[in-house]
Design brief:
This protein is about 75% helix and about 0% strand. Helix 10 packs antiparallel against helix 11, helix 12 packs antiparallel against helix 15 and helix 14 runs antiparallel to helix 15. The longest helix is centred in the N-terminal third of the chain and has 35 residues. The relative contact order is 0.11.
Length: about 300
């Protein structure tokens, strides 16, 4: 069969791109869209016994009774709204911290260092990706726990008498782990945007009397705004759905929406409710991407008009 396909492609080379597109669409359909479709169907179903789906005896009555919306209605109960608010707050603060930390790093690599050093520094930025994210998260447990490096160091310096118990299993630990994990995703798009910055604009602003602060505010930030927005999107979306970092570094009070979904599938065995929460979160993220796409389109039109 494979030899026959090879002969077909050799005879009709114009078919090769279509074959690759078909293969990509087939993989996306099987491993992405089909599981999503299953979860969408689950979100309108009801939990049965032993974690199964409750069968529907009368589809007409089920639809007219609006029982199929019960999972989505339940997802707006106050106890879950508190978790959504905490997730949103953690995602916003994490994104802001990554932006505040990542922008100077990207600016320094793009404009201040010699070209020969740029690749080396960029490699250092992506070095954490060479290790499993799970292992890096466990490493923070070693650092933050009562017998960890920070407590041992503070005690050795004589700054504290007893270990600080609140370093690990707290919102502080979760925030630290999230910022550490997502920071490269902020630095890389910022670097790409700042690298394209026309330094003549900075010199013009300086010649016109603007100091370094106002040059940064009035010229650098607007010129690199696409990179800032791309970094914000890349950090915010995975952060709001994160569950490994809150699960390992946070305590019971640090449950985020990702942990809520995981608990519904793995502990409560309520797949319909977990699926409904997933699609609610996906809808929220899609709205953000929609506004980002609209802004990017307007920005491109403004450039080319």
């Amino acid at each position: 069969m494979s030899e026959a396909l090879i002969r077909v492609f050799q005879r009709f080379p114009s078919l090769r791109p279509y074959a690759l597109i078909f293969l990509a669409l087939a993989i996306l359909t099987v491993f992405f869209f089909f599981p999503l479709l299953i979860m969408l169907v689950y979100s309108f179903a009801q939990k049965g016994t032993y974690g199964l789906i409750k069968p529907i005896d009368d589809l007409g009555q089920y639809l007219t009774s609006f029982e199929w919306l019960s999972n989505y209605v339940r997802s707006f109960e106050p106890i879950y709204l508190e978790i959504y608010a905490r997730s949103l707050w953690m995602a916003v603060i994490t994104t802001l911290l990554c932006l505040v930390i990542g922008y100077p790093i990207a600016y320094y690599i793009s404009l201040k260092v010699k070209p020969s050093w740029k690749n080396t520094l960029l490699t250092l930025v992506v070095v954490p990706f060479w290790t499993s994210f799970l292992i890096r998260t466990y490493a923070w447990i070693v650092i933050l726990r009562s017998e960890g490096l920070i407590n041992h160091g503070l005690i050795a310096l004589g700054w504290i008498d007893a270990p600080i118990e609140t370093l690990l299993y707290s919102e502080f630990a979760v925030m630290l782990g999230l910022v550490y994990g997502e920071l490269p995703f902020m630095i890389l798009p910022l670097y790409a945007s700042i690298e394209k910055l026309d330094t003549a604009l900075l010199e013009a602003a300086s010649d016109l009397g603007a100091n370094a602060f106002w040059t940064f505010v009035k010229v650098t930030i607007p010129a690199t705004l696409p990179g800032i927005l791309a970094g914000v999107i890349l950090v915010f979306i995975p952060t709001i759905g994160a569950f490994i970092t809150p699960d390992l570094l946070g305590g019971a009070k640090s449950i985020l929406v990702g942990n809520l979904v995981q608990n519904q599938f793995m502990i409560a065995r309520d797949k319909p409710f977990g699926s409904a929460i997933c699609f609610g979160l996906a809808a929220f993220v899609l709205v953000l991407l929609f506004f980002y796409a609209r802004y990017s389109t307007r920005k491109e039109k403004a450039i080319f008009v």
